[in-house]
Design a protein that fits this description.
There is one protein chain. This protein has 157 residues and is of the alpha+beta class. The chain has two domains: 37 residues; 80 residues, ACT-like. Chain A, domain 2 (Alpha-Beta Plaits, 2-Layer Sandwich). 37% of the residues lie in helices and 25% in strands. It is built from four helices and four strands. Strand 2 and strand 3 form a beta hairpin. The radius of gyration is 21 Å and the shape is globular.
């Protein structure tokens, strides 16, 4: 992100004293150089979340984080659901946690409405305890170019 003075706009705001104190603590705990950097991050997150709700056809990228219990049955249902969203699920990573729990993180990209449908389908699986989509409007570059220099030549006639 560019922080040139000509690309910045100033914002003045008033906050309740306790909220201001908590904001300063968060800035310090994260080791950020300023409140502005933290507030910009929070606004970006809120805007991406808002876009997912108000512009269902817009493309988003992000992660879906799932915590679940129940072992193989739940893992199989999660995998089956992901196959219904092959265009949206780019990759997944699974780790075992304590007490028969697992953590799975999906890298996703697609129309906001499809990502919401994916999350709803995963959330409906019995054993899923937590699920969160974190999205951004910045997209992954195309994984494969259809008409690029490395495109497969047409069959000779």
């Amino acid at each position: 992100m560019t922080t040139e003075p000509s690309r910045l706009a100033r914002l003045s705001m008033s906050l309740p004293a306790e909220l201001f104190r908590q904001l300063d603590m968060m800035v310090e705990e994260r080791g950020l150089p300023s409140r502005s950097q933290l507030i910009a991050e929070l606004i970006r997150h809120a805007l991406a979340e808002h876009e997912a709700l108000t512009r269902p056809d817009d493309m988003l990228a992000g992660t879906v984080t799932i915590v679940y219990a129940g072992g193989g049955r739940v893992r199989q249902q999660l995998a089956d659901t992901q196959t219904d969203y092959l265009k949206e699920v780019i990759s997944s990573q699974h780790v075992f946690l304590e007490e028969d729990q697992s953590l799975e993180v999906l890298l996703v990209q697609g129309p906001a409405v499809r990502l919401k449908q994916l999350c709803d389908a995963l959330r409906a699986i019995r054993g899923v305890q937590q699920l969160q989509l974190v999205s951004t409007t910045a997209l992954l570059p195309p994984l494969h170019e259809q008409d690029g220099p490395h495109a497969r030549p047409e069959a000779a006639e």
